[in-house]
Every structure is written in structure tokens, then in C-alpha cells.
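Any chance you could type out a protein's amino acid sequence plus the matching C-alpha cells because I've never seen that pairing?

——
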Amino acid sequence: FGSRQARRSPRGPLPVLGRGRSRGMPGPRPAGGRERGQAGQAEAHAAKLNAELARGLFCFLDANGDGLVEEHEWEIGCKESRSFFRPGQSQPKVVSEIFDALDSKAVGSLVLEDVKDEVASLCQAMGIPTGQGHEALHILQERRAKAAKQREAVRGADSLASMAAAAAPDAQSAPQSALDPARGDNKTAAAAAAAARVCSDRRAQVLRRFLGVLQPEADEAESATEEPLAIRAKRAARAVVAGGAPPPPPAPPARPAGDRR
């Protein structure tokens, strides 16, 4: 007692549309395809971040910026990093062992190709906590930039102090800032004071010779005045220029006593 359609069709009942893959309809997508694509993208992004982190850490260790990290640069950079992230845990043996492991060619230096896939080893040698590589690199870069600015400021202050000492009119005077004992740089201060005295003496000798050429007949009373040599020499030069007469030739230097040449 089958249905009328079943009795008419020798092949059985017709399939119901909308189910399965009948009549060329696409079936359901295999499970896990989208998840695998997302996982691949995440892995590629993580690899890119690791490459950037390795490049940044390598540049931090490469203090000279020549593309090579020598062993002493490695030790200094790792010590600087560990002193901040792991105070009191320098572990020079571990740092040296990691350097030897990365230096597979035993050339005594590292290039970026040696460490680009070794972010974990770099972080271990530098004492950077796990998973905090990018934050640690940002902190290290800021600390180094701040230290460089401080050194530049101190260098500029020392240069200005040296220039002021060299231009001081008094031969016996020295800048008080250079003699400040709080700076702990007494040798540098003494050298700056000595250089100032030598420069002032030479300047006085040159001015006296110049004034003697312009005014060889200057009386002793004017020479004994306390007027600065620079002002006297400038006034004498203006007098010669205003008179229109060429200055007399310079006198030959006096020979020291006992020189028979």
C-alpha cells in the first residue's frame, strides 16, 4: 500500500530538495578551516613582533652602531639591562654561555642574523621577564636616551667653563664652578686653571709686542698705568690708521743672553 508517487517511479521516492548535496548544491564547509586561518595569521603576526623585538634588542646591544655586537658590548649591555630588571643578579657566567651559544661560528661577535630567531635567549641574557620584551625594550631605550642627554649637558657645561677660563682677563682667576669640590673633578679643574693662565700670559705677550710696534716711543708713565693692554693696543691702532702712516716694521726678537749665533 505505498504512495501513488512511489508506485509510479521504479526508482523509489524523489529526493527532498534543500538537504545534503543534491542537484549540485554546495555542502557545509569542513569544520576548522576558519580557525586554522586565524591561527596562521596569529603565528605570522607573532613572528613579525619577535623579529622587531630581536632587531631592537640587537640595536640596543650594538653600542657602536656598526652592525656587530662584540663580546664586551654584549656583557655591558646585558649588565645594564639586568641592573634594572634583575638588580643583584648579574650572572656573568649565564650571559657568557648564551653569547657562546649564539656565536655558532666562534668569531667573537654577533650579527643580526645570529639573533633574529633567538628572542628567548636574548631576553634571558638581558634579564627581561617573559612576555614583556617590547615593554622592556621601550624602557631601556628611554633610559639610554636620558643618560645620553645628561652626558651631553655635562659635556656642554664643561666646554663653556673651559672657554670662560681661557677668555678670563685675570691670569690668576679660575671659574669657581670648575673648582667646586662637589663635582669631584679636581684634576680637570686644575688643568683648566693652568690652561687659563697660559692663555692669558700668551695674550698679554702678544698685546705688548703689538703695542711696542705701534708706539715704540711710549713713555713709562703710560706703560705703568692700570689700563688694560687690549684697550691701549686698540687706541694705538686707531691712531695709526687715522694718521694714514704705515706702521713701522716689527723689531727683530731679542736674543737670549749667551746666544752667539
